[in-house]
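Margin note: ligand = N-carbamoyl-L-aspartate.
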Amino acid sequence: MSDLKGKDILHGNQFSKKDIDAIIKTTANFEKALKGKDSLTLLKGKILATLFFEPSTRTRLSFETAMHRLGGGVVSMASGESSSAAKGETVADTARTVSQYADVIVIRHPRIGSAKEAADSAPIPVINAGDGAGQHPTQALLDIYTIYKERGSLKNLTVSMVGDLKYGRTVHALVELLSLFQARLYFVSPGLLRMPEEITSHLKEKGIEIVETEDIGEAAKASDLIYMTRIQKERFTDLSEYEKTKGRYIIDGEFLRRLKKEITILHPLPRVDEISTEVDGYPGAAYFRQVRNGVFVRMALLAMVLGKR
Ligand code: NCD
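Resulting structure:
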C-alpha cells in the first residue's frame, strides 16, 4: 500500500523521491497489465467525478479513460457554465456536494488555489488537474514517467524549458519533480514570460543549477531534453503583450538540423505553432508517446489515492 492512500494531489512539491519511484513502478505495472487487455477490474464500483471549469482535451479524457480501464465509473460535469458555479456556488460547496456521489474528484479551475479549496472541503481525495497559472502536478508526473522511459534514467539530466514559463502551470509543477533528481535547468523565455522569481529562488536554495536565457539555440546545445510550452494566451490581461511574445520560439526541421544531435522533445500539448508538424516523425519527438503515458500514470494515481496500490 502506498503512502498516497486517501491523499490529495495538489502540488509538485508534495512528492519525495520515494513517492516518484513508487508512482513510476506502479505506472509501469499498469502499462504491462493492460497489454492485450481492454480493462482491469481493480476499481470496480468506484466512481471518479471530473469537474472542469476550463477547457481540456487530454487531461479530462485521460483521467476518464484511466478510470474506465480500471473498471470504475465516471461522472462528469460538462462545463463550468452548465453547473451551479454559474449560479454562484463556491468551489468548496461544489466539491463537498460531489463528494456525496463520488470516491475521488479531479478538478480544473482558472483560479490559483482553487483545487486546495476543493480539497479542504471534500472528505475524499481531490486531484488538481490545473489551477489557473498555478500547478498541474499530474501532468508533471506523466512528464517524469515519459522522461524516465525515453532517457532510461532521471539522473544527470540537463533540461531546457521553453516558452511561457510565467503562466505555464506544467513547468511550475515539473521543476519541483526535476529538482528531486538534481537536474540542471535552462529557462528559455521572452523577458515578459520569465519563470516566477519565487520559483527560481526556491530552486536555487535547493542547490539546483539554473541558467535563464532568451536563446533557445544555446540552451538546446547544452541539453538532453527540450520541454516546449504554448504561450498561454488566455492568461494575459494585456493582449498586446501576447502579440509581442507569440511565435517567438519554434522548433522545426531546420532547427534540428542546425542542432546536429539527438535530443528528446516533450510538450504537454496542445501546441499552437511552437513545434512544426514536420518534427513529429523525428525519433526524439516524444509528445504523442507522452500523451499515451498519461493514461497509465493516471491509472496509478487513481489506484494509489483509493488505497488499491
Ligand atoms: C496544459 C495545461 O492545461 O496546463 N495542457 C495539458 O493539460 N496537457 C498546457 C497548456 O494548456 O498549454
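Residues 58-59, 130, 136, 139, 169-170, 230, 232, 268-269 surround N-carbamoyl-L-aspartate (CB under 6 Å).
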